[in-house]
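In the present case, backbone shapes were mapped to integers, as reproduced here:
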Amino acid sequence: MFLHRHPYLPFIPEKTTKLIVGTLPPPRFSTGELLEKDVDFSYGSYYNSLWLFIDKIHNLGLRFDNSQAAIDERKKFLIEHQIGVCDIVESAEREKIDASDLGMQNIKLRDVIGYVRQYPQIETLLFTGGNSKNGPEYFFRKHLKNYNMTLELVSNIVPRIHQFELSCHAGQSEEPLNKKNIKPAHNDKRVIKTVSLTSGSGAANISISRLPLYKQLKAKNPKFNTFDFRVMQYREFF
């Protein structure tokens, strides 16, 4: 059994307003066996494509390699755009060493709500996947139950949007942060929006191809592809 630990601590700039929430990077990021175009940072897998979408949206000319410069470019972008990263899975066990969310067992979650409380300017969570089993929204729903909170549907159109009311007096989590520097926000209640973006992984291409909007756009422009669709979707939030 392979113990798959998240290799990166949350990266949350002080003025973060949006928080990217995924699950775990591929196991090679935990074992240090990076591919040539991988970046040793959150969403650094060249085949995940999140940074490819961001690069396309903002015309950044990002590096895709194992260099420190590539890491610094991504941190600079996140700080300038007040975006943080806090994946919800701290660790999981796998019988097969791959990146499949469904392959995760004995999963330990991070206390995402604790981080949202610590940074009072956070107003949006960007899930890099939907509510399918072991996806980020799926885990977050379970996480909210520890605080006696639930998601309220705002829009059922992909990317689906929900919201929840965050109170400083919610129930205790089963995964306390236990960090002395983490303090709750001073305001009593905040409404936090969540957006379930289409996953950047190649496995999501099939589900994209079935969407009516994608079919409509593809019919108008045969060159339109699943990469273009994600760029169009992500542009609103990045």
Remarks:
- The beta strands are 2-5, 18-21, 83-85, 89-94, 105-109, 124-127, 152-155, 160-167, 189-196.
